[in-house]
């Protein structure tokens, strides 16, 4: 992978609403601004955060907290991607929250048997709450700026999505339209039309579940590290990557010694706080190791323990179940659900995934553990 020069992604002042300055004494995670967010996310059962794998693999989004106005080019294993800013700068990894929210809504609709449109209709407040953002006037202003950067950033690439390779030139979103405002001008209802590139990733299910604490990570750099771990480690026990390759995948132009120091700080914070979602992260001799925490770690196949005729639930759904029933042992819930299914006479399930997640959600509603 080769990277054209870009502004330093890690030495800029940090916006108070987004991330923390290196070396400060704040906790690595932002506070949970909306503890009852599941009440507001969506009218679809399992709208759990999802991300497209193409942008998780390649550094499409800027990690800078200042306007990033340089064109960047990446090449790796035959894939070429150029990211071209508008006058407002490149879309940032915090702007990506909007895309993640839209993708999550589309995946949730697909899981309900619907064929979603590229145009997502949503309420601005719901999106701010679901992504742990402020719901003040400043929160709405920042969201409007993010939509502008997403629309203005141009991508030129030959990366495959949905099994198709072609050179495409497009914006990250095609259009954003505010359909209803409050009396003081705040947006209420939005329509966001995704690019065909992003939409193709969704309908081909080239997406992965994110831990909700992704939206609480203060530093853009940590968000990018988590994306890479989620993409490459997944449900495996561990994943290793060299420091220089991690730097390239993050899109950093910092000197290697500076980047090394930043990675070490992340590892130290994780050792002290255990804050890094899903994975424990350590560094030894310029090799970064991501170890799967117990909640996502591969476990004995639940189908084998429940019987060969039990409905199959894949690891991604087991991960989603953690969000539907926080605090519960989802494998114990699976065994209980299978027993209930047997007692009901083994009815045909159109979507075992949706049925199991519904079971978990109802259990959480009846007896929340947290």
List the helices and strands and how they pair.
Layout: E1 2-3, E2 50-52, H1 53-57, E3 72-76, E4 79-84, H2 96-111, E5 119-123, H3 124-130, H4 137-152, E6 154-157, E7 168-171, E8 173-181, E9 187-194, H5 196-203, E10 207-209, H6 220-232, E11 238-242, H7 243-250, H8 256-273, E12 279-284, E13 287-292, H9 302-306, H10 315-324, H11 330-343, H12 352-366
Antiparallel strand pairs: 1-3, 2-10, 3-4, 4-6, 5-9, 6-7, 8-9, 11-13, 12-13
Helix pairs in contact: 2-5, 10-12
Description:
This protein has 370 residues and is of the alpha+beta class. It folds into 2 domains: 218 residues, no CATH class; 65 residues, no CATH class. It is 36% helix and 18% strand. It contains 12 helices and 13 strands. The protein has a 5-stranded antiparallel sheet. A 3-stranded antiparallel sheet has the order 5-9-8. The protein is globular.
Main attributes of the structure:
alpha+beta; single chain; 5-stranded antiparallel sheet; disordered N terminus; about 375 residues; 12 helices; about 35% helix
Overview in brief:
The chain has 370 residues and is an alpha+beta fold. The chain has 12 helices and 13 strands. The chain has 2 domains: 2-219, no CATH class; 302-366, no CATH class.
The number of distinct structural domains comes to 2
Separation, N- and C-terminal Cα atoms? 43 Å
Strand order of the largest sheet: 1-3-4-6-7
Contiguous helical run count: 12
The biggest sheet, with number of strands, parallel, antiparallel or mixed sense and barrel status, is: 5 strands, antiparallel
Choose one word for the global shape.
globular
What structural category arises from helix and sheet content? alpha+beta
Mean pLDDT score, rounded? 79
Per DSSP E runs of 2 or more residues, the count of β-strands stands at 13
Helix and strand element order: EEHEEHEHHEEEEHEHEHHEEHHHH
Low-confidence stretches: 1-24, 37-47, 295-301
Strand fraction: 15-25%
Helix content: 25-40%
């Amino acid at each position: 992978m080769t990277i054209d020069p870009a502004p330093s992604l890690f030495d800029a002042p940090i916006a108070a609403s987004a991330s923390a300055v290196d070396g400060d004494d704040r906790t690595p995670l932002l506070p949970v601004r909306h503890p009852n967010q599941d009440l507001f996310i969506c009218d679809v059962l399992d709208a759990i955060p999802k991300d497209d794998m193409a942008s998780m693999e390649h550094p499409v989004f800027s990690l800078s907290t200042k306007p990033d106005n340089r064109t960047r080019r990446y090449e790796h294993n035959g894939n070429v991607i150029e990211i071209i800013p508008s006058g407002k700068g490149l879309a940032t990894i915090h702007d990506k929250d909007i895309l993640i929210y839209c993708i999550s809504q589309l995946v949730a609709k697909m899981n309900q048997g619907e064929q979603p449109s590229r145009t997502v209709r949503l309420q601005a407040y719901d999106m701010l709450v679901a992504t742990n953002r402020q719901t003040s006037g400043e929160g709405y202003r920042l969201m409007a700026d993010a939509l502008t950067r997403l629309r203005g950033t141009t991508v030129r690439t030959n990366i495959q999505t949905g099994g198709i390779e072609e050179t495409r030139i497009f914006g990250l979103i095609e259009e954003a339209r505010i359909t209803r405002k409050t009396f003081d001008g705040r947006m209420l209802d939005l329509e966001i039309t995704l690019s065909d590139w992003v939409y193709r990733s969704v309908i081909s299910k080239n997406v992965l579940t994110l831990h909700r604490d992704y939206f609480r990570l203060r530093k853009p750099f940590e968000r990018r590290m988590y994306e890479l771990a989620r993409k490459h480690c997944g449900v495996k026990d561990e994943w290793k990557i060299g420091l220089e390759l991690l730097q390239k995948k993050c899109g950093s132009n910092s000197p290697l010694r500076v980047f090394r120091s930043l990675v070490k700080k992340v590892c130290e914070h994780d050792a002290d706080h255990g804050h890094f979602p899903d994975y424990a992260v350590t560094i030894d001799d310029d090799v970064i190791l991501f170890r799967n925490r117990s909640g996502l770690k591969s476990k004995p196949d639940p189908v084998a323990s429940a019987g060969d005729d039990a409905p199959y639930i894949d690891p991604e759904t087991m991960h989603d179940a953690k969000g539907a029933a926080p605090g519960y042992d989802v494998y114990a819930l699976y065994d209980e659900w299978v027993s209930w299914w047997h007692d009901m006479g083994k009815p045909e399930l159109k979507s075992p995934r949706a049925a199991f997640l519904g079971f978990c959600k109802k259990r959480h509603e009846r007896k929340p553990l947290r």
